[in-house]
């Protein structure tokens, strides 16, 4: 089943911050991690990922740095302290949102 772009749009920041909270990553690595951890349900295209990373960087929630490994120079991203604080807030917000939606859905239309 494909997830609507509107649903994805509301969750990409928390997903990216969560991945970067686990470890520093470069862009392609993030897209692969996302696909792997979601069994292919969530896919991030470069045209979606990099504008979000640039916004997170300008908001000082992530920072970028260059690292050379196996002769390849890649731009890595890491979460900042502010990014961890934002992730904590977004996680609480997501938990409330998810539980509220679940309650309505589980009511089975008895609203």
TrEMBL record:
Pfam families: PadR (PF03551)
Transcription regulator PadR N-terminal domain span: 16-88
Residues annotated as signal peptide: none
PANTHER family attached to this UniProt entry: PADR-FAMILY TRANSCRIPTIONAL REGULATOR (PTHR33169), TRANSCRIPTIONAL REGULATOR RV3488 (PTHR33169:SF14)
Protein name per Swiss-Prot or TrEMBL: PadR family transcriptional regulator
Phylogenetic placement of the source organism: Bacteria, Bacillati, Bacillota, Bacilli, Bacillales
């Amino acid at each position: 089943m494909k997830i609507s772009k509107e649903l994805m749009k509301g969750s990409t920041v928390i997903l990216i911050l969560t991945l970067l909270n686990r470890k520093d990553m470069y862009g392609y690595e993030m897209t692969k991690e996302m696909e792997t951890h979601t069994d292919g349900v969530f896919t991030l295209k470069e045209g979606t990922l990099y504008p979000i990373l640039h916004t997170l960087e300008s908001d000082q929630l992530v920072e970028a740095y260059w690292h050379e490994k196996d002769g390849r120079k890649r731009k890595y991203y890491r979460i900042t302290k502010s990014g961890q604080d934002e992730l904590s807030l977004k996680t609480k917000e997501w938990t409330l949102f998810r539980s509220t939606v679940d309650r309505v859905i589980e009511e089975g239309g008895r609203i």
